[in-house]
Amino acid sequence: MPRLLPLIAAIAAISIVGVGLSMTIPLIAVRMEAAGYSASANGWGVAMSGLATILVSPFMPTLVRRLGVRRLMGLALALAVASLAGLAFVDNVLWWYPIRFGLGASLTLFFVVSEYAINALAPEDRRGLWIGIYSTSLYLGFALGPAIIGFVGTEGRAGFYAAIVLFIIGGAPIIAAGAQIPTFSERAGTPALAMIFRAPVVMLASLLFGALETGGMGLLPVHALRNGYDAATGALFVSFVAFGNVAFQLPLGLLSDRIDRHKLIVAIAIFGLVGALALIFLSARYAAFSMLLFVWGGVVGGLYMVGLAILGARYTGADLASANSAYVMLYASGMMIGPPILGVTLDASPAHGLFGGVALLFVAYLATVAMRGRMTKDG
Question: Whole-number mean pLDDT of the chain?
Fold first, then answer.
């Protein structure tokens, strides 16, 4: 029971924070659009969160070691609330860029510490199950956020107030359970950046998933419009991928507890490549395209989850925090490079470019696996 309570607290924290995060993205986008800013200016605002993650992640093991989980989560919550209040009350949108950097830093603290806590607390024979529960809860939170925005609206400050309340509700359990989450006094044997080279197959899975999730889902509505569908159908395609993620996390988590996780993550990448090639040729066939999007999106969504389970099985203490920091940092890097790469391939070929670009990303990843020569416990 002592391990169960902090596990639930960590999952609850990141799930509710996911709701708040998925609320703030459309809120800010609408506010900037209403203020007359370009789409590229809006995009740079989103990039500030990714930049914050890349810059803050390497320091996470030191922060956990020096402050402990409870104080660090208290700091993260305070920074999140201050950032959301700034977005609500500061009218000069130019100030939103540094404010969004602060919000991105707070989210990095939440994500890295929550994932570290889940990996540190989950029993080895049920690690995939617990990470599957975490991933499912997070995706449900992401799905719920826009629905709340639909209820409170985008006008005024109500949406930001709701996000602040959700962050407080989400942060409170993990702060309360912080003393029960294992911490460490030693320095990490391998710095976060060096972890990338120790486990490239696993770490690059996070980079690949970040690129696919942000670039693929972000440009899927554009792909739909350029292939004869309307905007509503394009949004529906994104929903199919999202629901696939919700449906497949637990089964893949359970599967990862029963078979070699390294082989599973490579099998997911191979399926992702084959599925992307199939999606190229099914774009004009609505029913088949939609069904494959659901399955393909759900299976590919397991890349991040299975990689996270591999790190938890291999590392403990400070090294686990270091590995988790590098993992989140590469995910954020993928978020920043995915949209430009897939945007170029989509512009080059409106009919086939999006999933052709996705296929190329999978080919690059699988080539890295092949160059390793063999799969080892190092990833």
Answer: 82
pLDDT in tens, 86-133: 888 887 777 888 998 998 898 888 888 888 888 888 888 888 899 999
Round to whole Å and give the CA distance between 300 and 355: 13
- The residue assigned the tokens 């950032």 is 83
The CATH classification of domain 4-180, taken from the options 3.30.70.240, 1.20.1250.20, 3.30.450.20, 3.40.190.10? 1.20.1250.20
CA distances from 43 to 33, 50, 85, 105, 311 (A): 11, 11, 21, 18, 32
For residue 89, which phi and psi values (nearest 5 degrees)? -110, -15
Tell me how far apart the alpha carbons of residues 118 and 363 are, in angstroms, rounded to a whole number: 31
Residue 247, C-beta contacts closer than 8 angstroms, at least 6 positions apart:
294, 298
pTM reported for the whole predicted model = 0.84
Largest distance between two CA atoms of the chain: 58
Residue 243, phi then psi, degrees to nearest 5: -65, -35
CATH, domain 192-372, list 3.40.50.1370, 1.20.1250.20, 3.30.1490.20, 3.40.50.150: 1.20.1250.20
Position 211 pLDDT exceeds 50: yes
At residue 50, the pLDDT reads 80
Which DSSP string corresponds to 252-270?
A: HHHHHTTS-HHHHHHHHHH
